[in-house]
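Milestone M4 deliverable, item 7.
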Amino acid sequence: MSGPYGSSDADLLAYPTVYRQDLFKGQVVLISGGGSGLGKTCAALFGRLGATVAICGRDPDKLAAAEAFFTSAGIRCWSRAMTIRDPDAVEELFDDLYRDLGRLDVTVNNAGGQFPQAAIDFSVKGWNAVVDTNLNGTWYMMQAAARRWRDRGEKGNIVNIVADIWRGLPQMAHTAAARAGVIYASKTVAVEWAPLGIRVNCMAPGCCESSAFGRYPPAGAETFTQSNPMMRAGDEFDVAEAVLYLASPAAKFVTGEVLTVDGGQQMWGDPWPAGRPPAFEIDYNKGRLAQKE
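Output delivered:
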């Protein structure tokens, strides 16, 4: 990977993939948070495999830059600046997408946000902001897509990018709660929407390098490479190729599932995004917990 965290634009076009080059030819794929980071990587790979990519997010400058990059690479791209927190904005997004592109095959819910902090210090505003984006915003997107597929008698596919929450997420209780809600909402509607031909799955990455790494304190980012028994972080293409699998015909009999890509973090687990507290210092050379008295 190029740069301190995540992929360069050149990486996005050059990284080898196991998938057939025309796998998503003729399809339209919507990726929220598609202007940067994991979302942009997913959009690039879908586009390389023939899809028209529709990206949305809050930052119009990032979206404009991403759209220009995709267009220059021969990838058809459509973008809208909006926030998934606003259900009216979500409805307008889908209406405009169908008006301009005429169809939607896959919705990838990648947009989200959180900040590292001890749970005991969360403000009401901070808690609500994370839950509103990561749970409510994702739900608005899921429901809006499903209603349109139902009303048009079309099949559909939803992939929600969540988080590796199986051991909890210290200093991230707000997003752990929200992502758990997304997972179990997804499992529930995977049953309800199966008669409509709509598959709903989640992809749960562990600590995978992206531009988001740079937003954490160095002491926190250092723990990400210690979060799994492989003792390294994954990369954005680990996430993207897993998302594409769930969206592809190879997963046609998969719904209500959570695909975890974490290097074994769920069996090991030691990420502390704000930095490891002294009471949990670990001597990895000795391979034991060295708790202080």
